[in-house]
Structures are given as C-alpha cells and as structure tokens.
Specification:
Elements: H1 7-17, H2 26-34, H3 38-50, E1 70-76, H4 84-92, E2 97-102, E3 113-119, H5 122-136, E4 141-145
Antiparallel strand pairs: 1-3, 1-4, 2-3
Helix pairs in contact: 1-2, 2-3
Length: about 160
C-alpha cells in the first residue's frame, strides 16, 4: 500500500467507495463518519484527484434500469502493436464506449483491444461498432453480448 495514504484517507476512501449519502450535506455526513470536518474531506478529495488516485468523482448509471438493454463487448484485432495506443484512444473517444482495454492476444485468441458499449438494442451497439470500425480502419472484430449478469459492483479497496 502507498505509504502516503493515512488512516484518515482510508476512512474517507471507505466512505467514497460506497454510495454517497442521499442528504443535503453528503460531504458533512462523510466527514462525520470519518471523524473529521467537511472542509478536510473536500480538501482530501481534491488531493486524491491531484495524485491521480481517483480520476473523477461521479454517479454510476445502472444502465439496464435506465433502459439500455443491450451491452456488447467489441473485440478487435490490431496486429501492429505500435498502433494500439492511438487506436485505443480513438475508440475511447466514443461517448458510447464505457470501457476500453488492451489485453494480451494468443494463438487461438487474436484480439488485442476491447470496447464495452451499451445501447437500447443490439442494433444500436452494432451501429457504434461499425462507426468505430470506420474511424479506426479496423475490419477484424466481433461483438460479444452479455446473456446473464451474475454480479455487478464496484471494487471495495478499503473495508
């Protein structure tokens, strides 16, 4: 663990990784749980962002409950390793892409980049993948659709 992370940081992060209190004073409530002040919580959150311990602070949309019934993982063949960074960034620029990763390929699994897209239908997901293909010039790809969700939760780093 990073030695810069104090016991107070752990208490604040534990609160932040859960749902934010649904009150008029959520930061004050977090501060009370962590045993500090609201000003300290806000200062620490800004510190975490500056240190890049957190990228952003925001809400999570439960896509299925919001009407997005299809989610497809685009699996992309990008043979030239030198192109993957640029192409990954192009893929990630699509607002419909929630996740974009590079992973190792294997002799029986030639895919290098992975994009997760959510839509109201499979046709909508396929349209996004087609547009990604057009923008990147990649023609070797497929889409894997979820058929059943067993678990969906955010990682808990501090318990």
């Amino acid at each position: 663990m990073n030695p810069e992370i104090t016991e107070l940081d752990k208490k604040i992060m534990k609160c932040l990784q859960d749902d934010i209190p649904r009150t008029l004073t959520p930061y004050k409530d977090i501060a009370e749980s962590a045993g500090t002040t609201e000003d300290v919580v806000l200062e620490r959150i800004n510190h975490y962002k500056e240190k890049k311990w957190i990228r952003r602070f925001g809400a999570t949309l439960r896509h299925a409950k919001a009407g997005f019934k299809a989610n497809g993982m685009g699996i992309w063949v990008v043979p030239n390793e030198g192109d993957r960074q640029r192409i990954g960034e192009e893929m990630a620029s699509f607002r419909e892409v929630s996740h974009c990763y590079e992973r190792p390929s294997y002799s029986d699994w030639p895919f290098h980049l992975f994009t997760m897209v959510h839509g109201e239908s499979k046709a909508e997901c396929e349209d996004v993948m087609r547009r990604i293909s057009e923008k990147t010039g990649l023609k070797e790809y497929d889409i894997l659709y979820s058929s059943k969700e067993f678990k969906k939760s955010s990682m808990k780093y501090f318990l």
